[in-house]
Amino acid sequence: MIHTETNADRMLGWMQEHLKDLVPEIEMRAKAELAAEINRLKVEREAVILGHNYMEPALYHAVSDITGDSLELCRKAAETEAPVIVFCGVEFMAETAKIINPGKTVLLPAQKAGCSLAQSITAADVRALKAQYPGVPVVTYINTYADVKAETDVCCTSGNAARIVAALNTDTVIFIPDEYLARNVARETGKTVLFPGQSAAGCSGGMGSFIAWHGKCEVHELFQVQDIENVRRQFPDVLVLAHPECPPEVAEAADFSGSTSAMIRFVKEHPGKRYLLLTECAMADNIIAETPESEMLRMCSHRCPHMAQITLEDTVAALQKMQYEIEVPEEVRVKAKRSIDRMLAMS
């Protein structure tokens, strides 16, 4: 959804019509003024704003030129001709945009917007895994930092992981760093999960193994089957959508498990129903704005503190001062780009 309004009054009118149930009235004027200023500045700076599905509604709907999950934004970052990219997401996402667009200025509108999952593994950890399992291809979740991507054979997202693994046509894969995503994809692809120190030869005759890592998303690991059961007792007709970073038993208990974009498509293809989304709470708000006929139940006690670092105020500051620029060392960038390019080609 693209908005280029530069007038705060017009922006306020748009927000009051489209986001009235999502943005408190007391905050509406201030957010409208910030959004209008961002849209003015992005024209002045020749910038494009990429907004992840987890951004708060005003930022997602009123200023983002391109919205989506990690894979969609990765593809669009590769296609944009804008000299400036403002990435409203977390650091590893902005790094990915810089890896693909080395000649462009990439801004992350926060001093630090990290990720518990990305922080769970280092490049040295990947090198140690490759030494322990020589010749085994490394599939790395896009939710990792550039130096980790540089040590991998191919990246993946939650939406294309099973397809990437199948395309490799190999019995054993090092699949890092999300333990739950590994378990969920392993179940989907008929493989068994092992961890470093375990021998692939001791599992299924040495065939069909995922060498996984004990990384987790600090938000998705909190969801439990009991949450689903509690909601279903109160709302028997609810459809439960779970992100693949949730524990496997949660993904199995849900009615649908998929990436954030897959969840959004599911709701749009089945409007007018009641949903429980087991992912970052802000995404439900963004879906409500686009499909008001559907009812969204949310568990907003589980929030991503890193995504919350991206604000309208800091987006204004980033564009005004051209600050919070992302840099990736060229040697790392070139190696990381190979793993991303391979993912895009295989997707």
Structure description:
- The protein has 347 residues and is α/β, with parallel strands linked by helices.
- It has three domains: 8-115 and 307-321, NadA-like (Rossmann fold), CATH 3.40.50; 119-217, Rossmann fold (3-Layer(aba) Sandwich), CATH 3.40.50; 220-297, 3-Layer(aba) Sandwich (Rossmann fold).
- The chain has helices at residues 8-18, 25-44, 57-62, 70-79, 91-100, 123-132, 146-149, 161-168, 179-189, 225-234, 248-253, 260-269, 282-290, 312-321, 330-346, and strands at residues 47-52, 66-68, 84-88, 105-107, 138-141, 154-156, 172-176, 192-194, 209-211, 239-242, 256-257, 274-278, 295-297.
- The strands form three sheets. It has a five-stranded parallel beta sheet, with helices on both faces. A four-stranded parallel beta sheet has the order 2-1-3-4, with helices on both faces. A four-stranded parallel beta sheet has the order 11-10-12-13.
Q: Would you tell me the overall average pLDDT?
A: 91
Radius of gyration: 20 Å
Class inferred from helices and paired strands: alpha/beta
Which descriptor suits the 3D outline? globular
Using the coordinates above, name the CATH class of the largest domain: Alpha Beta
Low-pLDDT sequence parts: 202-207
Main sheet overview: 5 strands, parallel
CATH superfamily of the largest domain: NadA-like
Q: Distance between the terminal alpha carbons, to the nearest Å?
A: 24 Å
Do you know the CATH topology of the largest domain? Rossmann fold
Give the number of DSSP strands.
13
The percent range for strand residues is 5-15%
Question: Structurally, how many domains make up the residues?
Answer: 3
Number of helices: 15
Instruction: Please tell me the CATH architecture of the largest domain by its name.
Output: 3-Layer(aba) Sandwich
Query: What proportion of the residues is helical, as a percent range?
Result: 40-55%
Strand order, largest beta sheet: 6-5-7-9-8
